[in-house]
Amino acid sequence: SRPRENFYISLPHQIKRSKTGEESRRPMAGAKALPQILRLAAAAWILVFAAGHQQDKGEDSTAVNPIRKVVTLLENMAKKLSQEAKKEEELYDKFACYCKTGTADLTTAITESTAKVPALQGAIEEAQSALAQLKLDLKEHTADRNAANEAITEATGIREKEREAYEKEAKELKGYVTALSRAIPAIENGMSGTGLVQLGRPLSMILRKAATADAAATDDDRQSVLNFLSGGSMGGYTPKSGEVVGILRGMKENFEHDLADVEQKESDAN
Fold first, then answer.
1. pLDDT at site 183
2. With 127 labelled, which of 82, 111, 181, 241 sits at a CA distance of 20 to 30 A?
3. What rounded mean pLDDT belongs to the chain?
4. Contact indicator for 258, 173 with CB cutoff of 8 Å
5. Model pLDDT, residue 76
6. Could you tell me the sign of the dihedral formed by the alpha carbons of 58, 64, 66, 67, in that order?
7. Which of 38-52, 68-82, 225-239 has the largest mean confidence?
């Protein structure tokens, strides 16, 4: 009916203005309680009518005025509806603000993330290229390490052989020097070549070997020493002890020089 329509139109509205400047009217949150208000209003009019009818019958005028009760009830309901409308309005504004700012933040985050995609793609490609290069370098370094290990093994084997050769040669040279050091004083004191056997058969054998091993000695010197040790002569000539001592001293110096060279080479190799 027309009165009800006019009553609805008279309710509070919230005016919203769009981006184009147009205004729109949205009923406030309390408007949705219109059916309940209409029912309460109808009940109130019925109570007022009944109260007036009872007063017409002459009931006690001291009783509580039923119209006041209805008015009080309506006032309390209006107050309650106003409070609920205010709460709903605040809740609506809160979520409207959240939707507005949340959408803007989400749009900004999407835009920023999208802008980072090319840079991230480039970084991924660069990392993949670096990884491929590292794998290639690792393969090359592994091959170099294996080659180095093989070279170390080979060098170690060579060094062990050199060490064995040094020990053998040094032992032999030291034996020659020791034998000559013992034989020279004995010969100087008048001991004959055959008498050296008294100092031990190995000494005589070592002296013969030393005479043969001295590369710096001449064939005549070598033969003189051998004849002296055997007590024989060379072409009817028997070498004298003084001459043999000189030859033996020369041999001893040669062996000492060779021993020093060998020891120096071994020291340099270490």
1. 85
2. 111
3. 76
4. yes
5. 85
6. positive
7. 68-82
pLDDT at 202 over 70: yes
Residue 15 has a pLDDT of 44
pLDDT at 22 over 90: no
Which one, of 47, 30, 35, lies nearest residue 4 by Cα?
35
Residue 25 phi/psi, 5-degree rounding, is: -105, 125
The three-state DSSP-derived secondary structure of the chain is CHHHHHHHHCCCEEEEECCCCCEEEEECHHHHHHHHHHHHHHHHHHHHHHHHHHHHCCCCCCCCCHHHHHHHHHHHHHHHHHHHHHHHHHHHHHHHHHHHHHHHHHHHHHHHHHHHHHHHHHHHHHHHHHHHHHHHHHHHHHHHHHHHHHHHHHHHHHHHHHHHHHHHHHHHHHHHHHHHHHHHHHHHCCCCCHHHHHHCHHHHHHHHHHHHHCCCCCHHHHHHHHHHHHCCCECCECCCHHHHHHHHHHHHHHHHHHHHHHHHHHHHHC
Structure tokens, 57: 């019958």
Q: Poorest-confidence range of 24-28, 43-47, 210-214? A: 24-28
Count of all residues that appear for the chain in the document: 270
Residue type, 238: T
Write down the pTM of the prediction. 0.46
- Cα–Cα distance for residue pair 204/180, rounded to 1 Å: 10
Distance, CA of 115 to CA of 108 (rounded, Å): 11
Q: What is the mean pLDDT of residues 136-151?
A: 93
Encode 161-190: b = buried (16+ Cβ within 10 Å), e = exposed. eeeeeeeebeebbebbbebbeebbebbeee
Instruction: Residue 224: name the closest of 244, 241, 205 by CA.
Output: 244
